[in-house]
Write a structure and sequence with these properties.
5 helices; about 140 residues; Rossmann fold; alpha/beta; five-stranded parallel beta sheet; globular
């Protein structure tokens, strides 16, 4: 399996970040990238496609009924082995711990530092490849 076969889902309430991350992933060779600002659309997509990696913003703004932590919890109910990377402006230890308790593998802070984000994503990719080899 190579990068072009890894399915990635991106959820963030900021359209600019969704656009930036999706285009970055495509430029890095990831061929199957779904990106949205709508958490319900993200969950619907995940139920159908079972993305290998989910990049989820923790706080999705007041316009949405659910936040990224609830999306994370639902994704993990659907697939406990889902590899999830949380992203947030909030550096509160309690939020980071809750995300980890819900099953997030990694956590990045905004503003996104490109080098750190790519390293973190590569770690998630390694985990996906390890899981796929074990099957």
């Amino acid at each position: 399996m190579d990068k072009s076969e890894i399915r990635i889902m991106v959820l963030d309430d900021e359209e600019g970040i969704v656009f930036f991350v999706k285009n970055l992933l495509i430029r890095k060779g990831y061929g199957q990238v779904f990106a949205t600002t709508n958490p319900m659309e993200a969950l619907e997509h995940y139920r159908k496609e079972k993305s290998d990696i989910c990049i989820l913003d923790v706080f999705l703004g007041s316009a949405h009924e659910i936040d990224g932590l609830k999306v994370l919890a639902e994704v993990k109910k659907i697939n406990p082995q889902a590899v999830c990377l949380m992203v947030s402006r909030m550096e509160e230890e309690a939020i980071v711990e809750k995300a980890k308790d819900l099953g997030a593998e990694k956590y990045c802070f905004k503003p996104i530092e490109l080098k750190n984000f790519i390293e973190t994503l590569n770690s998630c990719v390694d985990k996906v490849l390890t899981l796929k080899r074990a099957v």
